[in-house]
Amino acid sequence: MPAPDATAATNAPDNAYPPTDRTVPTRSRERASYDREVVHAILDEGYVCHLGFIRDGAPVVLPTLYGRVGERLYVHGSTGARPLRMAGRAGAEEPGLPVCLTVTHVDGLVLARSAFHHSINYRSVVVHGTAHPVTDPAERTAALDALVDHVVPGRAADSRPANTKELAATAVLRLDLEEVSAKLRTGGPSDDDEDLELPHWSGVVPVARTYGAPVPADDLAPDTPVPDYLTRL
């Protein structure tokens, strides 16, 4: 893939991530976006990311929770988890793990008259970079709070924080948002002109996320009220 124009990357506006040879798509370039607000909105709406890295010469992709604080993403896991151990391995001048992190939302099923033109409407973000272990206690605390609040905003302040034993068993990785792109598809099917008279239904089936009523734990005290941050969902 040819590298994007270096001048364009250097002159990227402050509200955009500069494109690189890894963030410029080879197809449907008009769907790519480097706008920070677009990227942040897609990341903030998701729950699960897919974290890709190389292990023993082969690619591995793991689903995991994440949280965003400004221009940083955080993922966490057991201190024994392989990507977390690899990121902090000894011997490297600066510990870190080259990764590719992705988040995707499906917004609609696009049904065309021909099988070839079926598609989905989606919003996605791809982040390339090096994930580093978080060792600073204050940053670790902020990162773990962000992970909890990413799932349900306001929950971190309404739960017991991790104790010393739990913190010792938990590792956190930081990935800076530097080499980033979003890609989006909207609209209806792109049927060929010669297929427009075919009798097959064509259009979009919207896909949306919904929340049910909170279900209390079996051992929850009956008089415990549902928090406002849950009713706001």
Automatic annotation (TrEMBL):
User: Which residue spans traverse the membrane?
Assistant: none
Region annotated Disordered sits at 1-31, 214-233
Pfam families given in the database record: Pyridox_ox_2
Instruction: Report the InterPro entries cross-referenced here.
Output: Pyridox_Oxase-rel, Split_barrel_FMN-bd
> Where is there biased composition of kind Low complexity?
1-20
- The protein depicted here goes by the name Pyridoxamine 5'-phosphate oxidase family protein
